[in-house]
Amino acid sequence: MENSNRLTSMEIDVLGEIGNIGSGNAATALSEMLGHPINIDVPEVIILDYDNVMNILGGPEKIISAVLVELSQDLSGIMLFIQEKDFLSSVMSEIMMKPIESFDELDDMDRSAIVEIGNILMGSYVNAVAQLTGLHIDISVPSHTINMAGAILSVPLVSVAEEYDYIVMIKANFLIEDKRVSGDIFMVLDMGSLKKMLTNLGVE
Question: Could you report the per-residue pLDDT of 97-124, keeping only the tens digit for each?
Fold first, then answer.
C-alpha cells in the first residue's frame, strides 16, 4: 500500500494524547465492571502501513480473539480490539471466576463478556476522539470472532487496503491483580477522516 501522505511528529503526538485519554476512560469503565481498580500504562501509539499489521500480531497463523466495530457519521472506518490468551485469562478470572487456558474453553457467556469489554474499551477511545474534536461518531454493534490472525484481518482490512492509508495501533498494558497483560486496539480510518480529526484537534 502506498502512502502519498505522511503524518508529522506533531500529528502522531496528538494521536498519542487521544490514546492517553481513552486509556484513562477505559480503565475507569473496566474498574467499575470488575469491581476493583484497573490500571492502564501510558499506551504506545504506533502508525502502521497495512503490510506491517500481520507482523505485529505474530504472523497470519497465530490464533487470536478479536472484537470489531464500524465507525460512521463524521468519521469513517473500523476498530478492532485484539486479545491474546493472557489478557482473556486474567479478565475471565475476574469476571467469570474461571481462568482460560485455551480459546476453546470459551462459552457463550464468556464471549458476551469479551464483547462487552471490547465495546467498553473501543467506546472509550471513540468518546475521547468525539470529546476532543466535537465530531459526531457512531459505533456499530460489536462482533466477536476467534480465528487465525490472517483470517480475521483479511475481510475488514484487505477489503479497505486500497482506500485506507493508515492503521493506528494503540498498544495498552493493563495491570489486573498485579499481572500485566496487553490488549491492542487498531483504528483504521480513511485519509479524509484522519485529516478531519486532526484538523478539529487544531493540528492543521
Answer: 777 778 888 888 888 888 988 898 899 8
State pLDDT tens for residues 149-166.
888 877 666 555 555 567
pTM, two decimal places: 0.84
183 close to 101: Cβ distance less than 8 angstroms:
no
Cβ(63)–Cβ(57) below 8 Å: no
Where in the chain are the domains?
9-200
Task: Give the position of cell 465492571.
Answer: 33
Crossing angle of helices 108-133 and 9-34, in 10° steps, is 140
Residue 170's nearest CA partner among 148, 189, 149, 151 is: 189
Please tell me the CATH code under which domain 9-200 is placed.
3.40.1550.10
Distance of CA 186 to the CA centre of its chain: 4
